């Protein structure tokens, strides 16, 4: 049966996709060339339109050279035509999207955030549950004509250099915020991505997948920290694919935890919980008690934001149990951050959320945990210390200890001054609101005024 006859039956002969020219067009996401080659096989514009869900005029425009880069459109084309998803890279950076969409088509570029969350969740589920990953073609987001040449053949030393750069950049993020180092992370990725095209032993390539997945995860995290949510989502999507290719379940769990945190920040605990639960599957499969503890703590936070006391407390208990069993000293770098101090910070965070969304009495559990966390955090963890100080001050305000709360709030602001992080304002807003509610107190009023001025 020829391609035309197959198309009449609502399918394309799979052999069509195997020709070298077609594979090149798919790898480059050159949909115009893909459609032209289908036409050469006798598939009509009408048939292409029917199978992809596009209008005939849209197919015609693409045949004339209109580029297609939108994730949802590429996905629909791949599904409709029966193209193996591994032949096409489907994740792309917002800069690429803006270049293609342009200022004249803002409606296509601006999707509803809830739709984007659902798409990422579907993508995460596909990758986590074992769907085929997209491979190096998905890395075309970082294209700069001035890139430093990467080696044609790589060894373990090259991979270790990527890992060392990621560790150094992550330390800068913890201390100064994503705004301080995101450009450096993206630049490192621009170089590192080229190594995927290099030759090398399989064990080296496998470790490279994991190293670049971790670097993409850091790019996602630093993007999130300066409120570039679309960029964060795209980096996390690529990180997931690479981590899956590297068969690294703890890293998959960590990436899903971080994307879930983006949704908590957006006050979408239901969506965040779904990602944490997916991450929990990967964490349990990995056998890493520490990864399981991280996911349990964040699931507890999501439930707390929903006002579910029982589930929050239960999951905090499981967090402590898993942490005590974990081999923290030998943990991988991307999960090693979760030490005893972070456990106390999460206990304080969850009880703070419960105090705000369920029962103010939870301040009595939040305060001692947050006090231990703030005492233990050093200057190298300035952002985490700022968040903990802010929550500690909020809890003292809720308890009526206004003067002490205002004093700690002042320390939180002092700590925040050296950070380049858009998250700081959102995380400190509850404290500002509590201070405003108590503006008859001079210390609270002074704190509220200082915070308003700081975040203006």
UniProtKB/TrEMBL annotation:
<dbReference type="Pfam" id="PF13424">
    <property type="entry name" value="TPR_12"/>
</dbReference>
<dbReference type="GO" id="GO:0003677">
    <property type="term" value="F:DNA binding"/>
</dbReference>
<feature type="domain" description="HTH cro/C1-type">
    <location>
        <begin position="41"/>
        <end position="88"/>
    </location>
</feature>
<dbReference type="InterPro" id="IPR010982">
    <property type="entry name" value="Lambda_DNA-bd_dom_sf"/>
</dbReference>
<dbReference type="InterPro" id="IPR001387">
    <property type="entry name" value="Cro/C1-type_HTH"/>
</dbReference>
<protein>
    <submittedName>
        <fullName>Putative transcription regulator containing HTH domain</fullName>
    </submittedName>
</protein>
<dbReference type="InterPro" id="IPR011990">
    <property type="entry name" value="TPR-like_helical_dom_sf"/>
</dbReference>
<dbReference type="Pfam" id="PF01381">
    <property type="entry name" value="HTH_3"/>
</dbReference>
